[in-house]
Amino acid sequence: MMINNLAESIANIRGANYVPSNAVNDTQFWEAFDLETIDRELGYAERLHLNSVRVFLQYLVYEHDPKGMIERFEAFLTCAAKHGLSVMPVLFDDCFRPGPSLGPQLSPTPGEHNGLWQSSPGRSRMTTAYRPQLKRYADDLISTFKHDERIIAWDLYNEAQVRVYSVALVRDVFAWARAINPDQPLTSCYYGALLSDVTNIHPYFSPTREPEEAQRIIEGAQSFGKPIAATEILGRPNHGEFSEMLPLLRANRIGWYFWELMIGVNQTRYQWPHAPQAPDEIVFQGVLYPDGTPYRQDEIDLLLAYAEQPV
Questions:
Q1: Closest Cα partner for 169 from 135, 124, 119, 118?
Q2: Helix (H, G, I), strand (E, B), or coil: what is residue 57?
Q3: Separation CA 240–CA 234 (nearest Å)
Q4: Three-state SS at 304
Q5: Cα(247)–Cα(253) distance, integer angstroms
Q6: Torsion from C-alpha of 250, 190, 177, 155, nearest 10 degrees
Q7: Closest by alpha carbon to 57, among 80, 34, 38, 31?
Q8: Does 1 score more than 80 pLDDT?
Q9: Which CATH number is 215's domain given?
């Protein structure tokens, strides 16, 4: 649908970050592109009455096969729309491994949180010599889908790090996107806040344990005077449970995407390495096992209850 009321559209996001349960990272997601698994798992999202998914694209897959990447993203959008889901694509990302690689991916180290996730475009492609190629990638995707009602917003850069070349790419990708002038709003967390149409936060905190931190982050986001999306939430047991986060976000008219829909081979079910460790039976992130069985039925009941009450 066309976004006629941006604030209302963003406030009513009830979404999940999505990586197929059989993909260790976004490279495998788009290179292998298992539409049968994707269709089944987005069907689970529909059953939860979610209305959006956030997905990470991967520059290296596009670099290797631009036409194929565009076709796969189109197929993904079609599949998501079939299940009543809008899409927030992420173009660039600084998280975890600095050098993405194509082909068969390694097997994850048992117990390691998301150890095979690959940044996009990767540190070696952050030089000025690569800027034309990165611009071509961003221009191609945004131009192709700039009027597409299935896209709720473009998340141009996820968690840019405190590095001159990362912040410079944040600036550049916003400039490229503004020149194309898509119908959809633009957003980016951290250093993209001043350039964004939607303030983008990752509130990985427990409002119960850290009420002052929760207040600071919410008030800080509100100070920009723009709609707010929490594009990543959920970190059991110390970094925000559904029962803590959903009431807080609703009260402040903040749309949300939890990390993540599936409990899959990327192993975000394990705690962050620097986080207080918890027993292995506590799933850190993820809601559904690959067969659709929920980790916790009480969480599913809560998600369904919130779906029945638009902001």
A1: 135
A2: coil
A3: 5
A4: helix
A5: 10
A6: -50
A7: 31
A8: no
A9: 3.20.20.80
- Mean pLDDT score of the chain, rounded to an integer? 96
pTM (predicted TM-score): 0.97
Angle at CA of residue 161, ends 160 and 163, nearest 5°: 115
Distance of CA 203 to the CA centre of its chain: 13
Nearest CA among 86, 178, 94, 103 for reference residue 138: 178
Contact 25, 62 (CB under 8 A): no
Indicate the residue type of 35. L
Separation CA 309–CA 116 (nearest Å) = 37
Pull the structure tokens for residue 19.
């990586």
Token code pair at residue 161: 């790090």
Domain residues for 70?
A: 6-307
Asked whether residue 1 is assigned to any structural domain, the reply reads no
Proportion of the chain in helix, strand, coil states, percent, rounded to 5: 40, 15, 45
**Overall average pLDDT of the 131-143 stretch:** 98
> Residue 291 and residue 310: Cα distance in Å, rounded?
29
Task: Tell me if 286 sits within 8 A of 262, measured CB to CB.
Answer: yes
The pair of three-digit structure tokens given for residue 151, joined into one six-digit string = 């896209």
Evaluate whether 250 touches 214 at the Cβ level (below 8 Å). no
293 located within any domain: yes
The domain total for the chain is 1
Phi, psi of 120 (to 5 degrees): -140, 120
Q: What is the CA radius of gyration of the chain?
A: 18
Confidence of residue 280 (pLDDT cuts 50, 70, 90): confident
CA distance 117 to 165: 20
Q: How far apart are CA 79 and CA 38, in angstroms?
A: 8
Q: Residues 125, 127, 133, 139: is their CA dihedral positive or negative?
A: positive
Note if the bond before 260 is cis, omega within 30 degrees.
Answer: yes
